[in-house]
Amino acid sequence: MRRILWFRRDLRVRDNPLLSFEGEVLPLFIFDPAILDELSKDDKRMGFIVHHVQKLKQELQERGLDLAIFYDTPKRVFETLAPLGFDEVVASGDFDTYATARDREISHLLPFRLVKDTYVFEPEELLKKDGSPYLVFTPFYNAAKERFTPLHVKEYVPATQTLFPYMYAAFDMNSLGFSTPTPATLDPHEALVRFALENYLSTRDFMAQEGTSRLGVHVRFGTLGIRTLLRHLATQKKEGVDTEPFFRQLMFREFYAHLLHHFPHLETQNFRYAFEGIPNAKLHRAFCEAKTGVPIVDAGVRELVQTGFMHNRVRMICASFYTKHLLLPWQWGERFFAAHLLDYERASNALSWQWSAGTGVDPQPYFRIFNPYAQSAKFDKEAVYITRFLPELHAIPAKTLHDETALLKGVHVHYPNPIVNHKEARVKALAHFKKHTQSI
Ligand SMILES: Cc1cc2nc3c(=O)[nH]c(=O)nc-3n(C[C@H](O)[C@H](O)[C@H](O)COP(=O)(O)OP(=O)(O)OC[C@H]3O[C@@H](n4cnc5c(N)ncnc54)[C@H](O)[C@@H]3O)c2cc1C
């Protein structure tokens, strides 16, 4: 058999199903202009991808293979390759609308085989008894635990493969026109070793601590395989570590990916209620420029823009503030996060924004409105996180930074007063939502 191995969200050689097919192979990676054109020229993800594509090429070479790298539309690439006598294209799956349409298009040019790698479960593996998708996380999670077998994390053994003769010249990454800054988290295995899984439950909500794994970007691009991660959990479990809280979060990722597979419109449209945010460019700009005057929100946005990461609890606080206090359309906030998050995944991002906006599958309705001051007082008591990203507030007592009344009076010449009042915004949001709560 002669196959094209299309690397996309699996930028690694270890435990990669693409390398388990015996025969002649053409491994390739495509820089797709449809995706790249959407990115700003200093997008941090490009530094990450470029680094890992080059590393992948080198690791394939060490195995006697190579990687052909293209900058073109996948359609044009496969139109060029199709006449060269390939039996099939093999790639791992992605569920968003763009990826699904792209793969369908390629399957008209060459037989297309999707292999499971990006997620632990296929969407069809976890359905309710009546064959419909789960809409609530807990039953989905229970089903995932019930159906999980060692086969789900079995390591793929590399097969004997010979390299199809092609042009495998070095690719000039500078020709892509990106400044490709190198992000801090490059090595997935270092990140895995550094992560104190045993403390996850007790530290994961405190944004000043590195209590979470920071593995999102590696899981996103497959630089750390999901099966490798789960085998690591199994080893830790044998050593007595409670791995369940972390496993649960990984299953949230599956839950959202499956939902998007079943309901592709959730990328941009509400699941549950007809209410929409109220477009307001000025408020949106204040949020994106970290000028809301609410320290925990502004610190979160600064973290995101500076580092490409935002702590999960801060994501929840920011998204709630954006959709409830500012009453802005969740889709705008989702796009802002998408532009900056290194670990951006369409499913997790859109569905989490819908969760925050109260428009998603979550049965808890729209009246869950976080108080950002109570949140920061609880999870960043000494304002360590806030002042890390808002150093101008360093001299202000932590208590003041969690105190809306004090902030409304003004605390620093170079820091704005809050642009909304929590209580008033809450009342306004509830009235707005009540008016539009007919289900869709
Ligand atoms: C508004 C909003 C937007 C988000 N956007 C994204 C996104 O674009 N991409 C993304 O991967 N996650 C997203 N999340 C979920 C979560 O915030 C991140 O996965 C997590 O912060 C990544 O950091 P970590 O790797 O240290 O997480 P850890 O806590 O160490 O979790 C390990 C892994 O589990 C998965 N995970 C953890 N929590 C969640 C969750 N709530 N939902 C889905 N998967 C989860 C991720 O793959 C993560 O890397 C979003 C959450 C919110 C509230």
UniProtKB/TrEMBL annotation:
Protein name as it appears in the record: Deoxyribodipyrimidine photo-lyase
Pfam families: DNA_photolyase, FAD_binding_7
Cofactor(s), by name: FAD; (6R)-5,10-methylene-5,6,7,8-tetrahydrofolate
Keywords: Chromophore, FAD, Flavoprotein
Domain of life, source organism: Bacteria
Similarity annotation: Belongs to the DNA photolyase family.
The UniProt record lists the keyword Flavoprotein: yes
Domain Photolyase/cryptochrome alpha/beta, first and last residues per copy: 1-120
PANTHER family, per the entry: CRYPTOCHROME, CRYPTOCHROME CIRCADIAN CLOCK 5 ISOFORM X1
Gene3D superfamilies the UniProt entry points to: 1.25.40.80, DNA Cyclobutane Dipyrimidine Photolyase, subunit A, domain 3, HUPs
